[in-house]
Amino acid sequence: MNKRLTLLGSTGSIGESTLDVVARHPDRFAVHALTAHRNGDKLVAQCLRFRPEVAVVGDADTAARVEAQLKAAGCNTQVAYGPDALVQVAQSAQCDTVVAAIVGAAGLAPTLAAARAGKRILLANKEALVMSGGIFMDAVRDHDATLLPVDSEHNAIFQCLPRDIAEHGGVTKIILTASGGPFRTREPATLVDVTPEQACKHPNWVMGRKISVDSATMMNKGLEVIEAHWLFSLPGERIEVLIHPQSVIHSLVSYADGSVLAQLGNPDMRTPIAHALAFPDRVDSGVAQLDLAQIATLQFEKPDYARFPCLALAMQALAAGGVASAALNAANEVAVDAFLERRIGFMEIGRVVQSVLDGLSNRTPSGLADVLDADADARRAAREFIAGGAHIILTTDRTGSIDR
Ligand code: NAD
Ligand code: MG
């Protein structure tokens, strides 16, 4: 069956990997819409290749530029811009599948619109689910949408669970693997000096800058624990994090009889993307077959929460419930931006998030408006904390523990 896709965030790392898989199967997939934020040139190149009906960008200037370039090249893709246009292409009757690959909270509105329109959603944008949790899952259920995880760990778990995602008879726990990022073995006392370039250099994966920093702080794994909680309706206590530096086992599911099922593969996002695109079929993703004899050794260790305070903060937010995960996510987005712009240091990311969570007056959200309020409040609190300079880490002692 031919699927018609809206690809939200097509110019990003996940967006490009998705189009790489799509291009291998023109008989299966057609593109209704592509969206980008500011990278008009890349979007134009994608439009010329995939000929979508609609292209969406972030602002009027970029839209005018993209439109002129497309016209000059004889491409009649319509160009729109802004958050409403994203929602339109996500809920359009012209598409049946929406790939949610925008980074951060900006992806929530269109992804939720896709759920409310009953689409088949391929979810990479974990922040959207971390923010809206139960509201998003209710929308999926109430509107008969289908949610397929693209995040490699969640896609692995999905593959290892019984087919019906809501039914997990005999599952005792799920185990999310984590590479540990670029600083797994670095002397903790030296982490204060980490630069954005070092943080974005992941040992196994090539990804966007925000998720690369999240991997370095392990906030990414924390967000993934929250994502797994919602996707697989398991309490936090039954979701474990396991460091596995080779990133070959993408995650595991433990069963009551002692069986542990795992999904393995080379670390390339085209595998989970192809799985979700073609599900329940299997198609070529362009990823080389795994050569275990060549890899020879797989290692595992427990995560070090002292080294990675962001992981512990995410788990606390999940346990707290209410709008704590939305506040955690918002504070982290502000802190990561500040780090990438060299306004705060690497170890200060966790301090910003901690301060926002400490100051949170938590409540149960009664709807999306409450979530968006919590997001806005947390962003404000994070910015104030950063502007006040209270985040600055003054000393590091010889044993590597940080004196706050
Ligand atoms: P990226 O930064 O490479 O790409 C982000 C995309 O979102 C781009 O197309 C960009 O134009 C668009 N975008 C950014 N800000 C926007 C805004 N305000 N409004 C509309 N569009 C906007 O990011 P990525 O690495 O591809 O990650 C995308 C999402 O997928 C993230 O949520 C990330 O956590 C998740 N994810 C990524 C990977 C990976 O390997 N890259 C793996 C698992 C999950
Ligand atoms: Mg992941």
What topology emerges from the helices and strands here?
Layout: E1 3-8, H1 13-23, E2 29-35, H2 40-50, E3 54-57, H3 60-72, E4 78-81, H4 83-91, E5 97-100, H5 108-116, E6 120-123, H6 126-142, E7 146-149, H7 152-160, E8 171-178, H8 196-199, H9 209-217, H10 219-232, E9 239-243, E10 249-255, E11 260-264, H11 270-278, H12 292-295, H13 309-320, H14 324-340, H15 348-358, H16 368-388, E12 395-396, E13 402-403
Parallel strand pairs: 1-2, 1-5, 2-3, 3-4, 5-6, 6-7, 8-9
Antiparallel strand pairs: 8-10, 10-11, 12-13
Helix pairs in contact: 1-11, 2-3, 4-5, 5-6, 6-10, 6-14, 9-14, 10-13, 13-15, 14-15, 14-16, 15-16
Residues 151-153, 224 line the site of magnesium ion (MG).
The CATH architecture category of the largest domain equals Orthogonal Bundle
- Measure the end-to-end span: 58 Å
Overall geometry comes to: globular
Structural class, please? alpha/beta
Number of strands: 13
Q: What characterizes the major β-sheet?
A: 7 strands, parallel
Helix and strand pattern? EHEHEHEHEHEHEHEHHHEEEHHHHHHEE
Rg from Cα: 21 Å
Name of the CATH homologous superfamily of the largest domain: RNA polymerase sigma factor, region 2, helix turn helix motif
List the strand order in the largest sheet: 4-3-2-1-5-6-7
Name the assembly state. Answer: single chain
- What proportion of the residues is helical, as a percent range? 40-55%
Family: Belongs to the DXR family.
InterPro entries: DXP_reductoisomerase, DXP_reductoisomerase_C, DXP_reductoisomerase_N, DXPR_C, DXPR_C_sf, NAD(P)-bd_dom_sf
Binding site for NADPH: 11-14, 38-39, 125, 127, 208
EC number: 1.1.1.267
